């Protein structure tokens, strides 16, 4: 498997209308933001070790992982038990500057950041509070990748990301939505990753990512303790 996910559920500090976690059964996204240890945590660690998975991602179903009360404790315990594993944070960045100490304890970070424009950010994220991405990157001691919506990406957006030091971007297509997306002109195809095309933008890597067609595989620990290789549990929850 490519990696493993630890998924959190509960109230969020953003209200994204296209939140993929909303497609999960309610039981799978129950609130675990105050819980330690997590349900099935020991079994999850055993399976990660048994399968030889080299990367664990802390992410959310319908919330942000930096809202997890025991974030630093969990990360420290995981590092003690899985010494050969890298740890990645997938976050909306709303708490990054307040929690920069633990932010910098990951090996790398991916931030969901669709735009610098306040009005568009509110439409896509349900808030007018746009994180100060330039300051986050300035204070970060680990690589920061940006995840944005392909349908709302422009050349100007990519250029601004490049200016503040971003070197990797993922342009997400909405899961289960048939949409025609026109990517910015000037992207140069360099290859592919797990069935998704990878482009170059003046030295910045840009991946056109579709959950529907991706060949990527993961082991997933859901908030209710379910462990599954199916991220959306389309078969398990049908």
Secondary-structure-based class equals alpha/beta
Name the average pLDDT: 92
Count of distinct structural domains: 1
Topology-level CATH name: TIM Barrel
Radius of gyration: 17 Å
- Our measurement of the CA-to-CA distance between the termini, rounded to an integer number of angstroms, reads 23 Å
Q: What spatial form do the alpha-carbon principal axes imply? A: globular
Strand % is 25-35%
Number of helices: 6
DSSP strand tally = 11
Report the major sheet. Answer: 11 strands, mixed
Low-confidence stretches: 233-238
Provide the CATH architecture: Alpha-Beta Barrel
**What's the level 1 CATH class?**
Alpha Beta
Key terms:
alpha/beta; TIM Barrel; 11-stranded mixed sheet; 6 helices; 21% helix
Description:
With 238 residues, this protein is of the alpha/beta class. It has a single domain, classed as Aldolase class I (TIM Barrel), CATH 3.20.20.70. It contains six helices and eleven strands. Strands 7-8-9-6-5-4-3-2-1-10-11 form an eleven-stranded mixed β-sheet. Helix 2 (71-81) links the parallel strand 2 and strand 3. The longest helix has 11 residues, at 41-51. It is globular and about 45 Å long. The model is unreliable at 233-238 (pLDDT under 50).
């Amino acid at each position: 498997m490519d990696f493993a996910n630890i998924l959190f559920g509960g109230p969020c500090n953003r209200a994204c209308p296209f939140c993929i976690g909303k497609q999960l059964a309610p039981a799978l996204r129950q609130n675990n933001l105050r819980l330690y240890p997590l349900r099935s945590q020991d079994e999850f660690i055993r399976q990660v070790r048994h399968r030889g998975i080299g990367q664990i991602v802390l992410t959310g179903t319908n919330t942000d992982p930096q809202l997890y009360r025991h974030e630093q404790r969990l990360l420290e315990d995981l590092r003690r038990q899985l010494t050969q594993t890298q740890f990645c944070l997938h976050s909306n960045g709303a708490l990054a500057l307040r929690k920069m100490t633990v932010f910098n304890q990951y090996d790398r970070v991916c931030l969901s950041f669709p735009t610098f424009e306040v009005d568009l950010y509110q439409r896509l994220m349900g808030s007018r509070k746009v994180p100060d991405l330039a300051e986050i990157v300035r204070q970060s001691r680990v690589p920061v990748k940006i995840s944005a919506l392909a349908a709302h990406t422009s050349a100007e957006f990519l250029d601004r990301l490049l200016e503040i030091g971003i070197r990797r971007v993922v342009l997400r297509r909405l899961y289960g939505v048939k949409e025609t997306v026109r990517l910015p002109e000037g992207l140069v195809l360099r290859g592919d990753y797990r069935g998704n095309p990878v482009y170059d933008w003046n030295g910045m890597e840009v991946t056109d990512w579709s959950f529907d067609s991706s060949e990527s595989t993961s082991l997933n620990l859901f908030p209710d303790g379910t462990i599954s290789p199916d991220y959306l549990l389309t078969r398990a929850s049908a």
